[in-house]
Amino acid sequence: MAKRDYYEVLGVSKGSSIDEIKKAYRKLAVANHPDKNPGDKAAEERFKEASEAYEVLSDEQKRQAYDQFGFAGVDANGAQNYSNVYRDFSDLFGGGGFSDIFESFFGGGMRSSRGGQQRGPAVGANLRYDVDIDFRDAVFGTKVEIAYTHQIHCSTCSGSGVQSGSGRKVCSTCNGVGQVRRNSGFFSIASTCPTCGGEGYLIENPCNDCHGTGLKRKQQKLKVTIPAGVDTGNRISISGQGDAGPNGGPAGDLYVYVNVRPHKYFERSGNDLYCQIPISITQAALGAEIEVMTIDDVKVKVAIPAGTQNGKMLRLRNKGVPHLRSSFDQRGDMYIKIIVDVPKKLNREAKNLLKQLSDAIGENSSPEPVPFSE
After folding, report:
1. d(CA 51, CA 200)
2. Which residue of 7, 161, 264, 266 has the smallest Cβ count within 10 Å?
């Protein structure tokens, strides 16, 4: 099973602060801890997944490597090593032109027999699109159509940037290497060739349609499936729908970031929903059965125990938000906060009845303070 994006796992955005990341992890860890969910394999997996995500995103260096290289960047045998070297040399040389320095020391490309550098087509840029959806659509999932502009390969030159019948010539400044070198003490420092921009060649007759870039801008429309259970900060990755790469290179990805509009009556915490329901003082004192509307637009009967106090929380199991990328059998709970509605205006008959009730129960006119609830 493919690993989920670490930001998606914790339900935070890429720009979240460390405090926001800690808060999100703490909530997930408490809800899914194995001690709290004995025998629940799904909860155990969610706990492990959240812990792995937090280990990376709470560490500044690991997070930087992950943001740049994805999962490969935090593999102990992979690009994490590259990331560490990047920081070490970046500090040594003041952060200037490091990519060229790194390539100089660690073989940044295979050399051909003529001394030029064999470059594979570069991958295009990833793109971001932000979409706002309604609260209920986030709970149950939806489809949205988005329109955005991205770069595609020029159809006239097939992405080469060259006019038909024309070609490219080797750059005379760097002799096709794409880099120029200078000696600095013990080091031989390479930097990008200023003439060809690191390409190693020059276009003799640029394509008239794309002016030699090999790329053109196009407006694209896509229908995006938003899965049930998403929350603000979650993202949907759409492969190959970013900008096309230069020199015929593959396209990057499109990331659709979700923002959920607030609901008039419901609030969300993780997969649980919260609402407030008012009841009368007689319903609170005597107990009652009321009907409450859930997020599914279904009325359910809820028993109000006699003697219910203002602020009491009642729980409806499995009436919350579905777990992301799971069936609707796995849902959070719905919590109802009881608000005892004390009437502001009473007629004479109501006042007399309440006075009789006060006398009957022997209300205390000198109450003692009580401690705050734990």
Report:
1. 46
2. 264
